[in-house]
From TrEMBL:
Entry EC no(s): 2.4.1.-
Keywords: Glycosyltransferase, Membrane, Transferase, Transmembrane, Transmembrane helix
TM helices/strands, residue ranges: 139-156, 171-191
Protein name: Glucosyltransferase MdoH
Organism from which the protein derives: Salmonella enterica subsp. arizonae
Gene Ontology MF term list: glycosyltransferase activity
Enzyme class: transferase
Amino acid sequence: MNKTTEYIDALLLSEREKAALPKTDIRAVHQALDAEHRTYSREDDSPLGSVKARLEHAWPDSLAQGQLIKDGEGRDHLQAMPKATRSSMFPDPWRTNPIGRFWDRLRGRDVTPRYVSRLTKEEQANEQKWRTVGTIRRYILLILTLAQTVIATWYMKTILPYQGWAADQSYGYGGAGYLGLLYAAPALRVANRYPHLVCRAVLLGVSRILDGVDGILATAYRAR
């Protein structure tokens, strides 16, 4: 018994199929198993011709769903990884206006992204499910963010000087003391520097009106 006969005995073939194979040359064995009867210049490449036949007998499930493919040189081999699926590098236009999207839906316009339209119905259903889940998560995150902001603001008002909400009480003025300080003092400064008598009188009158409303002594800020 030589190596060729040992190789034939190890094949998962019936006794009739084994007896039909040549036992003189290993290259002839692979050529006999090859349905296309291809020849190779190198003896070491001869097993490539019998790949499909040996898989059909030893591992028939591997040939299902086009798992056995040919490479660029026409050799049979198993597909080790899924085919590359390339998508567009340009993102779909994202319309951020919720009112506009709602109006488009009312008018019956298609607002489905392009990548979703290329999916199957089953994939679209899965995509819609995850889009719904993502929307719920975003609203939950928004609510948590607003809630912690409100709570933090409520506690900060108790530890800030003058109790946070009443920071203008230290000046001894009314509830709009800051507004009077912002408007009366600049008006008085401009009036003191403006050379025209009529405009100066008008600006002084504005400052006195603000004094009467806010209780701020604008004369205290009069430019010297």
